[in-house]
């Protein structure tokens, strides 16, 4: 009798376990995961980008065609906002191993993208970046072996919704020339994005007849610049152009240059268009010149941008930044591809992204070209005034 009871209980347990896994698998079949990767501490760009993505998800009700959207955010940086290669690699490897993850959003740093793209490429996982701007990730002619080295399968799986530095660097040099600068000292943070955009700026500046005093790179974590400051003091450039992202080194650099007491303007690109920078350098940020991909959302005059701005303010009690706008755009594109895909799997979603065209987004109508780049070409000029980034004009 005891034996019969034991076997009955055992059979019941097996049935219950089977039901559990059946229901779990059914739930997994109806769950689509999207993972976003960004540096979430030390700088505001990552948080602002993710906030924009969340607005797009909220508009969709976290659901598409009966499938629940599960959104995960992973931090690939340290406390200062510097991305770390080991973190980007670990995250990418973990993400591709989860069959329910159908889209990888990010990272926000071009150097980090060089680490994750080959991993997602081998797994056939679509990767969409909101603000990677280094052209070599998708376009030939900028660095040896690029972009082919990032796509071991030979199939493109990486897309971006923002214009690249091939535009921003050129337009920055044109703006510098328009403002009458003649003698320029160039510095970069020795990273892919920083070295890349400063080199593009330099090439165009020389074409325009501007004098490049010197172009130097420094370690992104360095905070002392004795040789650079001595040369700046001796040769008195009227403009310093910086290529890179917000870091401890940049903060120290700007403060040190300001302490020289010389009449020198400072120009950078969207990598330092970060409110955290203004907060950390205070009055030394006044007059800072910045180029940026896209336009401030308040300058975009269409119904979609207005609706997004209102939703963002209601959710976060502040207006969206350009980063927020491109975060929203990247998530919107991902959700559109998932919605259009006949099968909710990686292969079908990748196909939809590859042929995405006539997409009506925040900044107008656009599509992906054969490289996976947006057809948008907007680049804006901005100046820091009274502790705020103020839109100056569209650069052409």
Helix fraction? 40-55%
Low-confidence stretches: 17-28
**Structural class assignment:** alpha/beta
What string gives the helices and strands in order? HEHEEHEHEEHEHEHEHEHEHHHEEEE
Q: What is the overall silhouette?
A: globular
Please provide a written account of the structure:
This protein is 43% helix and 20% strand. The protein has 396 residues and is α/β, with parallel strands linked by helices. The strands form three sheets. Strands 8-7-9-10-11-14-15 form a seven-stranded mixed beta sheet, sandwiched between helices. Strands 2-3-1-4-5-6 form a six-stranded mixed beta sheet, with helices on both faces. β4 (101-105), α4 and β5 form a beta-alpha-beta unit. It is globular and about 90 Å long. Mean pLDDT is 92; it is low at 17-28.
List its traits.
396 residues, alpha/beta, single chain, 7-stranded mixed β-sheet, globular, 6-stranded mixed β-sheet, 12 helices
What's the structural blueprint in terms of helices and strands?
Blueprint: H1 2-29, E1 31-38, H2 45-60, E2 63-64, E3 67-75, H3 85-96, E4 101-105, H4 110-123, E5 126-129, E6 158-160, H5 165-178, E7 183-188, H6 192-207, E8 211-217, H7 226-235, E9 239-243, H8 248-258, E10 265-268, H9 275-281, E11 289-293, H10 303-316, H11 322-340, H12 346-354, E12 359-361, E13 364-366, E14 379-385, E15 388-394
Parallel strand pairs: 1-3, 1-4, 4-5, 5-6, 7-8, 7-9, 9-10, 10-11
Antiparallel strand pairs: 2-3, 11-14, 12-13, 14-15
Helix pairs in contact: 2-11, 3-4, 5-6, 11-12
